[in-house]
Amino acid sequence: MSEPRAAGPGGGSAAGVPGAPASAFSKSEMMIVAAARELAGQRVCFVGVGLPNIAVNLARLTVAPTLELVYESGAFGAVPARLPLSIGDPTIVTGATAVVSMFELFSFYLQGGLVDVGFLGAAQIDRFGNINSTVIGDYDHPKTRLPGSGGACEIAINARQVFVIMRQSKRSFVDRIDFRTSPGNLGGAEAAARIRREEGWLGRGPSVVVTDLGIYHFDDSGEMRLDSIHPGATLDQIRDTIGWDPKVAEPLATTHAPTPEELRLIREELDPEGAYTK
Amino acid sequence: MSEPRAAGPGGGSAAGVPGAPASAFSKSEMMIVAAARELAGQRVCFVGVGLPNIAVNLARLTVAPTLELVYESGAFGAVPARLPLSIGDPTIVTGATAVVSMFELFSFYLQGGLVDVGFLGAAQIDRFGNINSTVIGDYDHPKTRLPGSGGACEIAINARQVFVIMRQSKRSFVDRIDFRTSPGNLGGAEAAARIRREEGWLGRGPSVVVTDLGIYHFDDSGEMRLDSIHPGATLDQIRDTIGWDPKVAEPLATTHAPTPEELRLIREELDPEGAYTK
Amino acid sequence: MSKVMSMRDAVAANVHDGDVVAIEGFTHLICFAAGHEIIRQRKRDLTLARLTPDLIYDQMVAAGTARKLVFSWLGNPGVGGLHAIRRRVEDADPSPLELEEYSHFGMVGRYTAGASNLPFFPLRSYFETDLPKANPLIRPIRSPYGEETVYAVPPLKPDVTVVHAQRADAEGNTQMWGLLGCQKEAAFAAERVIVVVEELVEEAVIRADPNRTVIPGLIVDAVVVEPFGAHPSYVQGSYDRDNRFYRDWDAIAREAATTQAWLDEWVYGVSGRAEYVEKLGTERVASLRPSGAAPSGSVDYGVYR
Amino acid sequence: MSKVMSMRDAVAANVHDGDVVAIEGFTHLICFAAGHEIIRQRKRDLTLARLTPDLIYDQMVAAGTARKLVFSWLGNPGVGGLHAIRRRVEDADPSPLELEEYSHFGMVGRYTAGASNLPFFPLRSYFETDLPKANPLIRPIRSPYGEETVYAVPPLKPDVTVVHAQRADAEGNTQMWGLLGCQKEAAFAAERVIVVVEELVEEAVIRADPNRTVIPGLIVDAVVVEPFGAHPSYVQGSYDRDNRFYRDWDAIAREAATTQAWLDEWVYGVSGRAEYVEKLGTERVASLRPSGAAPSGSVDYGVYR
Lengths: 278, 278, 305, 305
Known about the structure:
Order of helices and strands of chain A: HEHEEEHEEEEEHEHEEEHEH
Number of strands of chain A: 14
Shape of chain C: globular
CATH class of chain A: Alpha Beta
Strand content of chain A: 15-25%
CATH topology of chain A: Glutaconate Coenzyme A-transferase
Strand content of chain C: 15-25%
Oligomer: heterotetramer
Helix content of chain C: 25-40%
Distance between the termini of chain C: 28 Å
Structural class of chain C: alpha/beta
Number of strands of chain C: 12
Distance between the termini of chain A: 7 Å
Order of helices and strands of chain C: HEHEHEHEHEHEEEEHEHEEHHHH
Structural class of chain A: alpha/beta
Number of helices of chain A: 7
Largest sheet of chain C: 9 strands, mixed
């Protein structure tokens, strides 16, 4: 899974904000930084295992200092002194505001509507933001058995909005997911809105997908649209790693490259061993 | 509500066990002592407000030293240093084994089937042990508005067995209760057993009623039967204070009078102000 | 962000005529101070929800704040009835009072459903009783597994829940110990939450023992510091239940006139809880202090860097 | 009555072939010591229930104890997959493994229904997903209030639940702090409960802080004192998660042969946890201690006579 840090030519800042040249950061670092920035202005974020974990902790140190981290393991208002490998770790407990049972966390915090952003990773996603984290292949005879829902299914339904962070590839950005673990915009925005209303979902569904190549939001039809491309990435790369013909915003923005401070935080404080960014 | 301590002639022990003469204790004291003794061998008792409170605490000091007191207020394994007036009192918390939310108490302890005896008081009871603690008269236009169920309804259904403690009178032991707050043997044992089975109740229903005049158990038909008469009480008194023709065991036992130690515990330790025994 | 404010401001901002109000606390931590301020501000047409209406709602009903009670046990525990409420229920004196009645577990289930955004909560109660007839909101529900039927209660979502506690920080992160009742569920179920505490503490005190936190500041709208604010109810470790007052109330509330006289003297006649406590007198206050300390002991969470 | 016994006796008395076993603990307080003893006693045909099967069930599955998993998240958190389990699921190697799959909240709801003797637990999840198709025990249920439909999960009642905790008294009154997962629900739902603790304490320690008690001795069948019994999981305030082992396991478990060699060395090759800890070495153990103390502080319950 190693990935060279020099990601391509050019890059830098799109709008005069100082940023590192694209050669100075990895695609994973760009992805984490972009995801963290999307959390600006958010209050309560439900933290999933893996990439969401580092993105959210970076956000707390940069654009969202008042962000309250909710871990499905039961910690609320966590102030981890180190980046936990797992979402259950003693460092998210010591100094937290509250530690509660999972019954309480899922019932009162998540299902009760207190979570602004649910942050998910995924194995497969389709153009409408529906997510598979259960199996590749047939459910009963899987090619690859993935972890399964964990809390992802109820996060997608009950968090006010859902952020997704995952690497792009033809295997992961697919025309048709093999199993729907977490509902996104279903078959399109209109039907999804009606169903959400009828079934009383609190969530408005997926609002952003951050990948190693760009940032997607969802247009009025409920479909993913590339709104910003990361420095160093090309539209050809984008299209080569998506299983459908992706919508592209006009004009297409270029993501601000990571600032030196963002990179320093990732490399020195959050992930000195490079577990997330290699 | 004052009641003379000299309750009548004679009395004393039925089987040679030393007991005070009937003139030396009040009817309330006899009732409390008789109720406490019924708890011998029981493990977990759910304590209601009022008379159950003192009876259960007397049992813990005498026949049932390992009795675990569960208060619906959330205390388990309470060791009250004084008799609480209410079932919520700081003395039932300090030194208890566990203090839990009412959700947990009612869900896991009571509904989960851990309570051996639910101990209830009542305003009205019928021959089958069905209980009213809600209203006298019509529900919408009551003559007397009583407290209502509290936990009594779910205690009657989920405690493994139910003990009742209440004073006898034509107003309280009635042919037809005005409102069924807590189900007993419904219209009789056979139908009650069938319904309990079909509806999945954990409780086997009422097993004893202790009054100021005697002790009743339930016969095979599910009807209350006087099994023991308190010293000083007469069958005429019994019949004059019951709204139906009561079944009487043959032979009818006489309740052992309170021992000096039982009386001392009530008068000196549990209820020195006479709140329950006046 | 500090949410600390006076009781007057907290009630004025968060309690409105017609609201569903829950002042919870099962015998323990009942916030009489908030109830009295609601009376002083002459709120009207409230629906008062509580498992045990207790003296607090007897007083609020007597003062004319309420049009309806939602409850499960209506009495003065260990003493008798609630006379002001009974006058309105039995004699419509001075006007009728609407009742919506459950059992304790039913009320707990209602708050739990409200806090969890569930459309109902299932429980094994009410079988073969008259309660579902008296209250048609108690309804049977069939299990999707087999033939079994249990009962359901609907969610209860108060407009405002008032919770009294030993301590909170300025943001409203609240810790309590002793009997917990269903305050947590009632708070999470509510649109707005007022937390009233004996003591305001630094955030660090809360964060030193996160497992002790019952209510997060996230759902709290106002923090009021009101020592002795639960009297005649009690605060574990701080003061005892004033059983004498519970008994005294029985006589006070038997007549409308004596009830009003008491309200005039002890509620309308004082500006707030501080004056009430002063009026109560140092001797009475001192008599309610615990006779000794019973420390919990400390546990170690450990530092993990 | 003391329920203290050895792990060997506790497992022999309470875990039987064919049982539904729940060793709970969400990342925190996972009792590997009990899992290893179950392997050593060569229990067979177990149904293993856990939200996150984690390494503990990968090891137990690799050792041939299990015929079925009931779970919600199947992985090595932050590292990758569980290879022994995947071999059986993807390749039926050496034999198939039955899966019964929920979400986290579904599993929590199942234990809650089991603990509460409810025939089902309702939740707002599973809408428009393939999970109810994959598991027909996830079923829609209509609210008796209005048109709304939510989903239900059935109760889960393990034959035995194993819980690891910081401390308990000899009767099994158990206190824990840090992440609580759903151990309480899993314990109340179970027919039998084994509590494994870092430290056995006097009853007075428990009674000094009754709000900290998570599991009452009433439902506990065996108390096992097994320091470091949760390694490579962790115990808040006592030792850290051994992330190195979680990473190492990924390589160990990739091949059946290396997995068996590990079991031979670290499970079959030791008599119990004490020997395992000795084998781990004082340096590794020391490296997992917290870098400092973070005391909760003490609260006062007060003496009331």
